[in-house]
Amino acid sequence: MVIKRKSFKYLFLQLCVTFCISYILSSDLVGISNDIKDMYLYYFSYQFLGQDISIIHIIISIIPMSVMISMFADSLSYELDKNAAYFFTRTNKRIKWLLNKLVEILIKITLVDILLFIVAFIFFYFLGYKIIDFKEFICIAWKVLILTILTQYILVILSNLISIKINSSYGYIISNLAYIISVLNFYYLSSKNTVLFKYIPFTQQFITVQDNEYIDRSIKYFSKYIVGYSFSEAILYDFIILIIIILIGIKQIRKTEFY
């Protein structure tokens, strides 16, 4: 499993984004909470519900995802451009190759996110946040991590499949646009007090702030949520979207001619 030099550049950028945005967001919790789980929730599931919509809020919400998409947006097209004709004329294992690459991308995203969560913990600690209740922290942190990984993975796979069909630039642009539109729709529909916003694609990481007994609802940033919408439902919804995208990818790789 080779990690390109470009990925390290984006990893450094992602770390810088984490430091800058978490520092900005931490000011919102000053005097409200010093619980590190609240800072985890606020940063990794940032959705600006209950706040006025603004360019700054939108940028803060989309930049971490955009950087992650950039890091892995051309993972498939890069290898295909190098040796697709040689590989696929000598074997008839396109589907196996695709699935192996998708697993490899998932592993890389997971490793990057685990690293970011560890670095974030250290940085949040230096900002003055601490673990108040270990059980509550673990419960929130692992759910945030899993939903973050799944959302990033879905968007990265979407970007890669578009890159194969068209080119990597379009893959990156379309995936980012899809995410921005989803974030804006999530905000708009949530303001209408409709449960429809839980079905918006690419936003299930926001659902972490939903029906969870360990979330402090006295904090205004977590006060709006969907009663009865569970973590398992969010996982199931993400898996359905992921399976659909992968099936489309398999169909696409079968029909694509490589030269």
What keyword list fits this structure?
259 residues, mainly alpha, 0% strand
Describe what you observe in this structure.
This protein is mainly alpha-helical and 259 residues long. The chain contains eight helices and no strands. It has helices at 5-29, 36-44, 55-72, 75-90, 94-126, 134-165, 168-191, 231-255. The two termini are 25 Å apart.
How are the SSEs placed, and which strands pair?
Blueprint: H1 5-29, H2 36-44, H3 55-72, H4 75-90, H5 94-126, H6 134-165, H7 168-191, H8 231-255
Broad shape: globular
Name the poorly predicted regions. none
Query: Tally of extended strands?
Result: 0
Mind telling me the C-alpha Rg? 19 Å
Structural class call reads mainly alpha
Helices and strands, in order, run as HHHHHHHH
Mean pLDDT: 82
Number of helices: 8
Termini separation (Å)?
A: 25 Å
Give the strand content. under 5%
The major pleated sheet works out as: none
What is the percent of helical residues?
over 70%
Brief description of this entry?
This protein has helices at residues 5-29, 36-44, 55-72, 75-90, 94-126, 134-165, 168-191, 231-255. The protein has 259 residues and is mostly helical.
